[in-house]
Write a structure and sequence with these properties.
2 copies of one chain form a homodimer.
Chain A lengths: L3 E11 L7 H4 L5 E5 L4 H4 L2 H8 L4 E5 L8 H13 L4 E6 L1 H13 L9 H4 L12 E5 L11 E6 L4 E6 L7 E4 L9 H19 L7 H23 L4 H13 L14 H13 L3 H15 L5 H12 L6 H18 L13 H14 L11 H10 L2
Parallel strand pairs in A: 1-8, 2-3, 2-4, 4-5, 5-8
Antiparallel strand pairs in A: 6-7
Helix pairs in contact in A: 4-5, 7-8, 7-9, 7-11, 8-9, 10-11, 11-13, 11-15, 12-13, 14-15
């Protein structure tokens, strides 16, 4: 096991009718900005519950945060926060709204010219301070409710970049599984795949003798495999929704990453597909992961075999046959949720692959837990997924 | 799944050579009291490492905290803290030292006459404030390094009682698995059993459709079963020590308790055996748990069968046969570590059972996840374990 540091102070308030507890979590006298997306929260009653709980707070609203939230939109929110002397941000929505809120929280207090610096100069320029954040999660998927990561897309340059900072951790996140009841199939499927692949990025590397972290990762995968289809099949199944929701949060709150190598190549390649074609984040992951598994079958061999055996029960055949079966079972799972796993199914032309490879070449990126996935391997991975 | 609230802000610093990082975690200018036990830290080099890291801090020492730390000893430390204007407490040791430090941290700032109130009037009188705490863990077992619980024994009345408060959570805990290398067999065995039974108290109740929590609990049990004997067999096996250490912490940091019923009857009964006979905490648990499983085999049936199948691979036989096998495999595991599981092996007379039962009668306690274990059932459980 590697040395590690772990701390996660986010307060989780989980369960039925938990949204009303919001009012006890925001410091009295705060001037609150409530940020949300396209208005689905008005259809499912979440907006009304949040407004009821905010009634004693001086508060404003900022609506219209997109899936894959845009820098341009966030900058408008930052302007509003500064203009209106906001001192508490409340994100009501899924990962996109929470991610945008994190950027707004740090961006509003940034003394430099352009808070895009946090993304474009990640690891060099980091937030020194941020406004406090609370979240009401309405879509289990990204884990943003319990981590300090944010991903934002800059429309003008077609860049989708991320940064992470403990300064933008939500102080609290409210998780009411009832919010899952009104989600469309596509969002549930995306959420299951997103959480699944978050686990894979922290698990499918090479063994470092960390059996507990492995088992925790496998526990989340198994639960998503069991509960995901239940949620898709019956949106009113509270327990399935709750199990899905808690699994998605624990998939990316730092816990299963303790003391083990990580490989975020699937995400980094996937982001480019979203940047160029607007494909849903989770779907880009479902496309890319099988390619990474296929290309890195030697260096990831031990963990792919462990994953195949413990998750899919694959024990027979040569090593290559077992790896092939494992990839194919994983793809079948994503497809069973209605998520296509080939670039051609999303109408992505070969030209895009070359553009993406060119970007990684320019950046000089070396992806993967062994930093051995360069632009030419990215190209191979994507051609493998046409 | 039940509704729940979960937050755990303790910063874990885990790994080889992590003790030297102490100096970065204590606020500059603090006046530190370092609390420790019987001096084993002087033999294994931990004392020297801590002292080296504290060299730029104004600090004092308080030695002599016992296993099952005593109220009387803690009160001396509280006196010292007040007299010397200490403003930071550093616990260096196992669960006993950390538990004592928590009591000292809250007790020193208590405005009432006797801080024993936190124990004797638990849930009525709670700490309003506490001094900040840091910990250097030297013995994986209790999980005290990442929770807000403390158990203290009052010698004069032979009471062993507990309280919990977020105010006494350590700000940071340093976990260096190398500290395990110098532990005697008995302490390793006790630590494995203690952590194992912490998991059981949060797992072996009744199903509430919380598959992820179940799997996390089972993951810790499996890892303890695998790694515990490795640590016993080779004290220099760093990975085994690390896996044991991280398992023991996660066994009682609140995570696996989220959204599920709990049953702390084994602990509450076990505490009495320590109070009357000074038996090591973990050993009292190994004695009592099989009795609780046997007596509550009906109400715990589903989870005992799940535990038996998933952990011990027991699938054959009638329900009662499988439960018997499951209890017997669990006992064999404890015994394989050198931990006897019968009261008679500790020389406890029948008279003690009656005294303990009398105590529970007087307190009117109803133990267990269904609050259906009264004094007469406590008596049955203990007679079953003679």
């Amino acid at each position: 096991m590697y040395n590690f540091e772990y701390t996660n102070p986010v307060k989780i308030i989980f369960g039925k009718e938990s949204i009303s507890r919001l009012k006890n979590e925001i410091p009295q006298g705060s001037r609150v900005l409530m940020l949300y997306g396209g208005g689905s929260i008005k259809g499912n009653g979440v907006y009304q519950q949040v407004k009821a709980s905010l009634k004693d707070f001086d508060h404003l609203e900022f609506a219209g945060i997109e899936p894959n939230p845009r820098y341009e939109t966030c900058m408008k929110a930052i302007e509003m926060v500064r203009r209106e002397n906001i001192d508490f941000l409340l994100a009501v929505g899924g990962g996109s709204v929470i991610d945008a809120t994190k950027f707004v929280a740090a961006g509003a207090l940034y003394s430099g010219d352009d808070p895009w610096d946090f993304f474009s100069q990640r690891y060099i320029i980091e937030p020194e301070d941020a406004l406090p954040i609370g979240a009401v999660l309405t879509l289990p998927a990204t884990g943003s409710e319990m981590n300090g990561n944010t991903v934002v897309t800059r429309e003008s340059t077609r860049e989708k970049l991320s940064f992470g900072s403990p300064k933008v951790l939500p102080g609290f996140s409210i998780l009411d599984p009832v919010t899952v009841f009104s989600l469309p199939d596509k969002q549930v499927a995306n959420g299951v795949v997103d959480a699944f692949i978050h686990v894979m990025e922290q698990y499918l590397t090479f063994p470092v003798n960390a059996p507990l972290q492995d088992r925790f990762a496998e526990s989340i995968l198994q639960t998503l495999i069991e509960e995901g289809p239940k949620v898709l099949g019956n949106r009113q199944d509270y327990d399935a929704a709750a199990n899905f929701m808690w699994s998605a949060t624990l998939a990316l709150n730092g816990l299963i990453a303790t003391g083990v190598p990580q490989d975020w190549s699937t995400h980094l390649i996937g982001h480019e597909l979203t940047a160029f074609h607007g494909i849903d984040h989770a779907r880009t992951l479902a496309v890319v992961l099988p390619g990474v598994m296929n290309l890195k079958r030697k260096s990831k061999q031990d963990k792919i075999l462990q994953f195949g055996e413990r998750i899919w029960g694959i024990k027979e055949g040569t090593i290559d046959e077992r790896i092939d079966q494992t990839i194919s079972r994983t793809v079948s799972f994503f497809e069973s949720l209605g998520v296509p796993c080939r670039l051609s199914e999303y109408g992505v032309p070969e030209e895009t692959i070359r553009k993406i490879s060119e970007r990684f070449k320019k950046r000089g990126s070396k992806l993967g837990e062994k930093e051995d996935i360069d632009y030419s391997q990215v190209e191979k991975i994507l051609f493998d997924r046409m």
